[in-house]
Amino acid sequence: MKNEKILKSNNIPLYMVIFSVVVLTMPLWLEPIGAAYPDLLQKFAIFGIFAVGFNILFGLTGYLSFGHATFLGVGSYTAVWSFKLLTMNVLPAIIFSMVLAGIFALLIGYISLRRSGIYFSILTLAFAQMSYNLAYSVLTPITNGETGLQLSKNDPRVVDGLFVEVGQGIPSTNLFGLEMSGYQGFYFCAVLLIIAFYISLKIFNSPFGLNLRAIKSNQTRMSYTGYNTKPYLLAAFVISGMFAGLAGGLLAVTDPLAGAERMQWTASGEVVLMTILGGVGTLLGPLLGVGIIKYLENIFSSIGVKELGDFFSFVPDSMHAFVVDFSSLFVGEGWHLTLGLLFMIIVIFLPGGIMQGFDKIKNLMSKKDKE
Amino acid sequence: MESSFFQIQGVNKTFGGLKALNEVNLNVEEGTVHAIIGPNGAGKSTLLNCCIGKLIPDTGTVTFKGENVVGKTAYQINQIGIARVFQTPEIFPELSLIENVMIPAFARRDGNFKLNWFKSLMQEDTIYKEATDILENFGLKDQMMHHAGNMSRGDKRRLELAMSLIQHPKLLLLDEPTAGMARHDTNKTIDTLKKIKESGMTKIIIEHDMHVVFSLADKISVLAQGAIIAEGTPDEIKGNPVVQEAYLGGADDE
Ligand SMILES: Nc1ncnc2c1ncn2[C@@H]1O[C@H](COP(=O)(O)OP(=O)(O)OP(=O)(O)O)[C@@H](O)[C@H]1O
Ligand SMILES: [Mg+2]
Q: What pLDDT sits at residue B252?
């Protein structure tokens, strides 16, 4: 019995143990590159969930959605409302986030999936822009428009009111009393990332996942093979929408406010970039993409001329100013330039993303071994 | 006439000004192999397309076991037991051979949608075994972990045949299953087709290669310019002057 060969990874428990250890020790191994502060760690985990979910749709079925930030936004608004109306406990908040994002995904997916290819992408983009504009205009009573939805002292919080004395000031988000800021917030998100990754791993290795990959490969063939492909695509769309909703909810958990800019098309585009950069349809690729983009966005963007000057202090004086000036193009505000260049290099030389690069290196090594 | 196993009645199809099918009638008895021959562009593939939901005929009916399939979607037609092998190989190029044959095997169970996302492919022992067996029969087993897209054209066609056979269809439609194959591969394919002939599966086969047609078919229909011009047993067709003429008019042996 050798059918484990057909699996994407044939030792799921081992894979999960390694993955969990790597994620949970992030504060340690990210320290040397200056990325081990809670705020950024939380972002790694949250956008990791977003990208892992997005990859279930884009990576497995090939359907490229340009509107997934909608679900991120829906998740955030829902979570904040749950904090305002019910309780500061984060568990109900993220459950509502996922449910509501799932409902949105069902509706938007049902309509967008009537088309495929570029038309599908355009439809999702249209829906996303519609949601974004509605959040700014008609829906202001729900979204609080440009100011964004925030907590206030006068929120009812009916469930909390039953159990605890209403204290002074705005209470903080918590998991049954455990505050969800700082490292605790990170570990909460990290555990959810591990669960999300486990689900994606299971999907990749399931008959369901295989059917999704077959749809990507040749959708017409699937129909002539007896598959009704619509419900499969819709399921993938809703699952990835719910992952996005969870990510949106967690953004509000770690920082309880929600604004419409979270739904903007640039946010939808970012998750596309992350997935492609790391490797579409691979298990780990999207997470690598998240790591790189969030690192550049947060660390590179904060490097200034002074830091560069120190860094290049070994360069002879005559060259020093030039080297610093030149490299300052790529940091600070210029981090977008770095990202753009990196993206171009990857897409041109490694269309399968960074994971393809790893594969190539692995193949080279095994060839060397054989010789 | 009493309804037979598979029946095409009064089918017409026009593309713009071109009459691709003209009042086509065809009767296929259960358990037989029915060949359709005819020059290039006669409308053979178009006729099959009308049977599997790829095209909708302008008029006419296609009935399978008394049920009209015109208007049904492609996947519904497959589900009632009609499978098709295409003229140009339709496979899943990015997937491995074993995955290519496992997918059609799942279709009976999962076709209408099944969210078995927490089931591991490893638990699919029966289907895995069926899939490796069929690949072994086709001499493709040692390549089973390779991407289907990298195979030779002949192997792709044989893979597609395997994909159809694993579904145990009640009616199999074959569109030039040996076209583009080397002689040696053609013979292997004919052997396979003979074997399934013994299993009693009903088949409609389009073929240019007369050697293949005469060795397999129980009955032959000749299609020329969208119309059936002759029908009969292989011996009858061989001696039919109308057929000779149609073939001399637009002769082509691929
Ligand atoms: N979808 C289509 N749109 C327009 N014209 C078509 C279409 N499909 C087929 N035709 C035309 O209909 C005619 C019959 O084509 P068909 O493919 O059925 O022929 P065939 O008998 O299978 O030929 P061959 O032996 O070359 O496969 C041809 O003239 C073809 O150009
Ligand atoms: Mg044809």
A: 46
Minimum-distance CB partner of B117 among A1, A203, A218:
A203
Do B153 and B102 fall into the same domain? Answer: yes
CB contact under 8 A, B102 and A6: yes
Question: B103, B116, B123, B170: which to substitute to probe chain A, counting the most A Cβ within 10 Å?
Answer: B103
Distance from CA of A198 to the nearest CA of B (A): 10
Res A164 pLDDT > 50:
yes
Above 60 in pLDDT, residue A162?
Answer: yes
Q: What's the ipTM?
A: 0.92
Q: How far is the CA of B40 from the centre of ligand 1 (A)?
A: 8
Q: Is the CB of B132 under 6 A from ligand 1?
A: no
Answer for the pair A38, A181: CB distance below 8 angstroms, yes or no: yes
Nearest chain B residue to A231 by CA: give it.
Answer: B113
Residues A235, B121: C-beta atoms closer than 8 Å: no
Top mean pLDDT of A41-55, A140-154, A354-368 is at A41-55
Q: What is the pLDDT of residues A217-236, one digit of tens each?
A: 999 999 999 999 999 999 99
Q: What is the pLDDT of residue B149?
A: 95
Q: Say how many domains are in chain B.
A: 2
Give the confidence band of A8 by pLDDT, cuts at 50, 70, 90. Answer: low
User: What's the confidence (pLDDT) of residue B254?
Assistant: 37
- Check residue A89 and report its DSSP letter: B
Task: Name the strand (E) or helix (H) holding A29.
Answer: helix A26-29
Element (H, E) at B231: strand B227-232
pLDDT at B122: 86
Chain A nearest CA to B91, separation (Å): 7
Domain identity same for B95 and B58: no
B81 lines ligand 1 (CB under 6 A): no
Q: Which domain holds residue B215?
A: 1-79+171-176+201-254
CA of B49, closest atom in ligand 1: 18
The CATH number of residue B143's host domain is: 3.40.50.300
| Model confidence, pTM | 0.93
Q: Would B119 be classed as within a structural domain?
A: yes
> What's the gap in Å between B48 CA and the centre of ligand 2?
9
Q: Is B53 in the pocket of ligand 1 (CB under 6 A)?
A: no
* Average pLDDT in chain A: 92
């997005």: which residue's tokens?
A: A54
The reply to whether B181 falls in a domain is no
Q: Answer yes or no: do A228 and B75 touch at CB < 8 A.
A: yes
Is residue B42 in contact with ligand 1, taking CB distance under 6 Å?
Answer: yes
First to last CA, chain A: 31
Note whether residue B157 is domain-resident. yes
- Per DSSP, A157 falls in state -
Regions in chain B scoring below 50 on pLDDT: 1, 250-254
CA of B20 from ligand 2 middle (Å) equals 12
Residues B11 and B65 in one domain: yes
How many C-beta neighbours within 10 Å does residue A229 have? Answer: 23
Structure tokens, B112: 């209408």
From the list A213, A280, A226, A10, the residue with the least C-alpha distance to B120 is A10
d(CA B31, CA B198): 9
